TrEMBL record:
Listed EC numbers: 3.6.5.-
Quaternary structure, from the entry: Monomer.
Species of origin: Aminipila luticellarii
Name this protein carries in UniProt: GTPase Obg
Cofactor: Mg(2+)
Gene Ontology biological process terms in this record: ribosome biogenesis
Cited Pfam families: DUF1967 (PF09269), GTP1_OBG (PF01018), MMR_HSR1 (PF01926)
Keyword Hydrolase: yes
Length: 431
């Protein structure tokens, strides 16, 4: 099954907590702090891998998590760094942040990679908090938070040449006789519902050719599977427009030619400007001096596009058609490739959480006064509730951020319950 779009959730690893430990040695009754730092959480990395062709695996597994960092240990030993999670995708995959709709990375060729979410930093052990006044710190820093986000994976086939045209005009047959591909072929509309790839190996290094599924009128608006089909044309360098010139199904070749090009133009003007050659297929059913064929040939060539008469099943004209495609590719190789235009995700801005230091206060339905905040969460997780110095630091932080004043304005009185995350405290005034 060919799958070219998937949505998954990725989550980096949490940083390990710093350790609160003290030296315990014979004849050293009051050893100093020796708690080591926690390890950094693992990153989530996307990497393009040429051995993959579809996004099918992501239909069955939707959540991916990197490993958490290990907590620090005694004797100043650092916790182990969480293992990075490498998610492999086919070349041609665009990774999009669902929340913003912005492109995080376009993984064009095998080996391309990037870090999609970074793991949390490891927390500092208590050895880092020793100073001339505080000789035995009984607290350490909590590890940094993990980061979770939803991403959309969108695969656009990377092919040198794309076969386009209405359904049932012979694209799959041309692909099968030109390459090592074996697409399923039958005489009915929409035979090809997924793109097929093959390698044309008779010219030098060869080139990759894709049979883009049949396009119909209204494809640019999503009719049929329009958008799914059209997006695969975006990366092709040369288009072979296959047209049934026999009129075997009562179609007009000129109208078909114009309708397909109109759909390309309406979807994206750049598609209509791609180099194009026409394969006038099913010539075994029409004479080359037929007025209808000659009118079609004259019309297409008046637009500067070459026409090659072919009959795919009996291989007539195929070599000449492919030779022209190879020559056009060689010419394009000498030109500077045009990069696709995307509005890219801002990773620097993403790393700076603007509301990280904000503290929020509210009154819960049960009457408890609640305090939340991202930096508060980290300080709270670092607090040793059996250590007066550590508790005092938490209290002073809440006071400094104005949280206590806000709660009093909301009606907080002595004896009321203050809830900080999952913990509840009874409020008493300091005297």
């Amino acid at each position: 099954m060919f799958v070219d779009r998937a949505k998954i959730t990725i989550k980096s690893g949490k940083g390990g907590n710093g350790a609160v430990t003290f030296r315990r040695e014979p004849f050293v009754p009051e050893g100093g702090p020796d708690g080591g730092d926690g390890g950094k959480g693992g990153d989530v990395i996307f990497m393009a891998d040429a051995s993959l062709r579809t996004l099918m695996d992501f239909r069955y597994k939707r959540k991916y998590e990197a490993e958490n960092g290990q907590d620090g240990m005694k004797k100043k030993r650092f916790g182990k760094k969480g293992e990075d999670l490498i998610i492999k995708v086919p070349p041609g995959t665009v990774v999009i942040d669902e929340e913003t709709g912005l492109v995080m990375k376009d993984l064009v060729k095998s080996g391309d990679h990037f870090v999609a979410t970074r793991g949390g930093k490891g927390g500092k052990g208590n050895v880092n908090f020793k100073n001339s006044v505080r000789q035995a710190p009984n607290f350490a820093e909590a590890g940094g938070f993990s980061k979770e986000r939803n991403v959309i994976l969108e695969l656009k086939l990377i092919a040198d040449v794309g076969l386009i045209g209405f359904p049932n005009v012979g694209k799959s047959t041309i692909l099968s006789v030109s390459t090592n591909s074996n697409p399923k072929i039958a005489n009915y509309h929409f035979t090809t519902i997924t793109p097929n790839l093959g390698v044309v190996s008779i010219f030098g290094d060869g080139f990759v050719m894709a049979d883009i599924a049949g396009i119909i009128e209204g494809a640019h608006e999503g009719a049929g599977l329009g958008h799914e089909f059209l997006k695969h044309i975006e990366r092709t360098k040369v288009l072979i427009h296959v047209v049934d010139v026999s009129g075997s199904e009562g179609r007009d070749p000129i109208e078909d030619f114009d309708k397909i090009n109109n759909e390309l133009r309406l979807y994206d003007e750049k598609l209509a400007l791609k180099p194009q050659i026409v394969a006038a297929n099913k010539m075994d059913m029409v004479d080359e001096e037929d007025p209808g064929y000659l009118a079609f040939k004259e019309y297409v060539e008046s637009k500067g596009i070459k026409v090659f008469p072919v009959s795919a099943p009996i291989h007539v004209g195929i070599h000449e058609l492919l030779a022209e495609a190879a020559a056009m590719l060689d010419k394009l190789a000498l030109e500077q490739p045009e990069e696709e235009e995307y509005e890219f995700f801002d990773f620097e801005k993403d790393d700076v959480e603007e509301d990280f230091k904000e503290v929020y206060t509210s009154v819960a339905d049960d009457g408890a006064y609640e305090v939340t905040g991202k930096q508060l969460r980290k300080i709270f997780d670092s607090t040793n509730f059996n250590d007066s110095g550590s508790l005092r630091y938490l209290y002073k932080y809440l006071e400094k951020k104005g949280a206590l004043e806000q709660l009093k304005e909301m009606g907080l009185e002595e004896g009321d319950t203050v809830r900080i995350f999952d913990y509840e405290f009874e409020y008493f005034e300091e005297y």
